[in-house]
Amino acid sequence: MADAPDHLSKADFSALSELRYQMRRFERFSEAAARAEGITPLQYLMLLHIKGYAGRDWATVGELAERLQAQQHGVVALVTRCEQAGLVERRASMEDRRRVEVHLLPPGEAILRKLAAVHRAELRAQRGFTVPNLS
């Protein structure tokens, strides 16, 4: 952990409290929005991380595990469930046949686009979402 100030003021604690409140409020919104589309919050996050992976339109299970901060075997199970739901597919890499790429399928892309638009609108509505500056 980085060097922490020896003394945090009441304002510092208030700012941290407000940030955590805003984060949780947005997270609850996100969870409800995903469920309304018939997927779990974790499935939504996985779809988002696949589409949002820098430089390409797919991700490996290991990369998804890092992004989701989850164990690799748990992500394998998540990919399997998403594959069974027709949201993603696994493909052997053309560059390295040992590597498996996880790609979005059109139904997964459609759900993701709808949820991303809803999330963007919610973030705009929550204009008070700011990161505190600790002294």
TrEMBL record:
Residues 9-135 form the HTH marR-type domain. InterPro entries: HTH_MarR-typ, MarR/SlyA-like, WH-like_DNA-bd_sf, WH_DNA-bd_sf. Pfam families: MarR_2. It comes from the Bacteria. This is MarR family transcriptional regulator. PROSITE patterns: HTH_MARR_2 (PS50995). PANTHER family: HTH-TYPE TRANSCRIPTIONAL REPRESSOR YETL, TRANSCRIPTIONAL REGULATOR, MARR FAMILY.
